[in-house]
Design brief:
This protein has 276 residues and is α+β, with helices and mostly antiparallel strands. The chain has one domain. The protein is built from 10 helices and 7 strands. The protein has a 5-stranded antiparallel sheet, sandwiched between helices. Strands 1-2 form a two-stranded parallel ribbon.
Length: 276
C-alpha cells in the first residue's frame, strides 16, 4: 500500500473499533448516523434510504445464519459486490457510495461500522503501511483484509498468524521506481479507536494535499487529524511539512501561520506519545 510521491500512508492505516454490547442491535437509522463523522471529513452525503435497505438485508441474513463466521463471510462478499468495486490509493470515504472506489482505510471503516451494528467484537489494527480487522467470533478468530476479495477472509489460525507477520514486515514497493517514497522511522502495530479512524481519514487527506503540492491544505487537514489521533505518523509527517513550508514559495505571512500550526501539531503529538 502506498500514498503519493513522497509519503506512504496507511491507507489505512489504521482502529480498535470495539463493538459495544447492548440489549439490542442498533436500527438501520442509527447505523446511518454512524457514517456521518466519516462522511463529514469531505462534507459528503449519501442516499440514506439505500444504505438502510442494505443494512436491513444483512439483518435478515444474520437472523438466518447458522453462526457468526458464516454471516461475516456473507457480509464480506456483499460489501465487495455492492460498494468495493475498484481500488485507488487516493480516495475518500464518500467515494464508496458514489462510484465504488475504495482503499484499505475506507473499506475497513465501512466493514467495521457494520460489525458494530451487529454487535460483533472486533479490533482494527494499524501497521506502518496497512490496516486490517481481527474479529472475535464464537467459532474463533477471523482476519479480514478488505483489499483482498479472493483471500481476504482468513479463518485458519496458521494463515492468520502468517498474514499478521507479513503486515508487520511489509515495506514499500513503489509502482514507479523513479519516484521517492518516504520510509517511516517507526514500527506500528496499534489498535485504533473509531474516533482515531476519523483522524486517519484526515491524515490521508493531508498526505494527498501534500502530494498535490497544496501545503496550506495539508497543514489544515493534519490539524484536523491530530484532534482525533496523536499518531507517530502525524508527528513525523509534520516534520516533513515544516521543511516543505520553509522551502516553499508561500508568502512570508502564510509560512509563519503554517509553521505555527505545525509546531502546535508536533507539540500535541509528542505529549500524547510521551504519555503526558
Amino acid at each position: 500500500m502506498r500514498f503519493g510521491f513522497i509519503i506512504v500512508i496507511l491507507i489505512t492505516g489504521l482502529f480498535q473499533v470495539e463493538a459495544g454490547r447492548s440489549s439490542m442491535a442498533e436500527s438501520p437509522n442509527q447505523t446511518t448516523d454512524a457514517l456521518q463523522p466519516f462522511l463529514a471529513t469531505t462534507q459528503a452525503s449519501i442516499n440514506h434510504a439505500a444504505w438502510a435497505d442494505f443494512v436491513a438485508k444483512l439483518s435478515r441474513k444474520r437472523a438466518g445464519s447458522k453462526n457468526e463466521t458464516q454471516f461475516l463471510r456473507y457480509a464480506f462478499n456483499r460489501i465487495h459486490h455492492q460498494f468495493l468495486k475498484r481500488f485507488a490509493a487516493n480516495t475518500t470515504f464518500a467515494s464508496l457510495f458514489d462510484d465504488g472506489t475504495y482503499n484499505c482505510l475506507t473499506g475497513t471503516i465501512l466493514y467495521s461500522i457494520l460489525l458494530n451494528h451487529f454487535e460483533i467484537d472486533h479490533q482494527v489494527i494499524e501497521t506502518n503501511y496497512h490496516i486490517f480487522i481481527l474479529v472475535q467470533t464464537q467459532e474463533g478468530e477471523v482476519l479480514i483484509e478488505i483489499t483482498d476479495p479472493q483471500d481476504g477472509f482468513v479463518t485458519s489460525a496458521d494463515k492468520l498468524t502468517k498474514r499478521i507477520e507479513q503486515y508487520r514486515q511489509q515495506g514499500i514497493q513503489p509502482a514507479d521506481p523513479a519516484l521517492f517514497y518516504y520510509q517511516y522511522n517507526f514500527d506500528l502495530y496499534n489498535i485504533v479507536s473509531q474516533h482515531e479512524l476519523i483522524g486517519l481519514l484526515y491524515y490521508n487527506l493531508a498526505v494527498d494535499s501534500f502530494n498535490q503540492k497544496d501545503l496550506q491544505k495539508a497543514v489544515h487537514y493534519l490539524g484536523r487529524a491530530i484532534e482525533r489521533y496523536a499518531s507517530p505518523r502525524i508527528e513525523e509527517f509534520s516534520e516533513i511539512l515544516l521543511v516543505a513550508v520553509h522551502e516553499s514559495n508561500l508568502k512570508e505571512r502564510e509560512k509563519i501561520l503554517c509553521k505555527k500550526e505545525l509546531q502546535t501539531i508536533r507539540y500535541k503529538a509528542l505529549l500524547v506519545m510521551a504519555g503526558i
